[in-house]
Amino acid sequence: MITDRIRSFLDERRPEGPCLVVDRDVVRRNYDALHHALPDSRIFYAVKANPAPEILSLLAELGSSFDTASVAEVQMAIAAGATPDRISFGNTIKKERDIARAFELGIGLYAVDSFEEVEKVARAAPGARVFCRILTDGEGAEWPLSRKFGCEPSMAVDVLTHAHTLGLKAHGVSFHVGSQQTNPGAWDRALASAAEIFRDCAERGMTLGMVNLGGGFPTRYLKDVPAAEAYGQAIFDSLRAHFGNRIPETIIEPGRGMVGDAGVLKAEVVLVSKKSPTDEIRWVYLDVGKFGGLAETMDEAIRYPIRTERDGTETAPCVLAGPTCDSADVLYEKKPYDLPISLTIGDEVLIECTGAYTTTYASVAFNGFEPLASYVI
Predict the structure, then answer these.
(1) Orn/DAP/Arg decarboxylase 2 N-terminal domain spans which residues (predicted)?
(2) Which residue in 195, 210, 331, 362 could disulfide with 172, CB within 3.0 to 4.6 Å?
(3) pLDDT > 90? residue 12
(4) Which domains, ranges and CATH numbers included, belong to the chain?
């Protein structure tokens, strides 16, 4: 969304080139909404969504914890003011020396999804708490996750037993129902699996204490999405149904849902052209594309709201593409995007809801283009 603060910043500063502007007031509002919707769950912000120091510091002040995927992200969270007990190393694919470094920094909570990862944690972070990530189908998510992370639920008990045998604390279960999850009921089946794992571990003498509900909380792009309260109620109902009166500690890992709608990406039209004199479809090229931060347009999964200075005039579908010399740098072609017919070279375009997974996905200097500039206001 384009807040008055963002609009004033762009009007007054007139930054040259594509840039992202994030409004901290929106981040604060999103944190409050999630905290209100899930008051009994600790929030572990997914640093990978947007690691801007100003955002991390704000969230640390608000009481957020942090989900990190690397030693660098661990250090970012600590620099922002988070104590080690408010940080988890949530990547299930870690170098042993990185586990050791995180352990030196005081991190005591680690994700695993295999026997081999458990063994690395046991060697490098003896006595640490671990939670096992399980696979989910991701149905209902606009950006479904692959089978890269997690193990089959039936295997999780053995993974946690192995951790227990090696002196680690088998602490809980985690899952991720898919990014931009539009179905509040998507957590139910995963929680049913988690409850079964809790029972099986108890039979083996292990008392698990935590369920990591993952991320998935959405941002409104072109379609309405349920409010945070709907997710909170659905998740609580599922916890009650599967765990009864013995509901475990829960944590959530919002990324997109925390910062997505807080950011607006300013871009410029570089070229408007057609591929033949009879072609009815225009090609509109922007000065930012897949390699400049809009990687989530891959397979046209995320369709961002786009505003132009010519809105309100007649529109027609166009193919939207980025500026680089790579044929993959096309944002919307399978389903062309309606933009004003009068849109022309040099016009400013504002791409809304780009606060998440833009600066972190942008290339360093592909084709010599500068990395995406970012301002947090």
Answers:
(1) 26-259
(2) 210
(3) yes
(4) 24-259 (3.20.20.10), 261-376 (2.40.37.10)
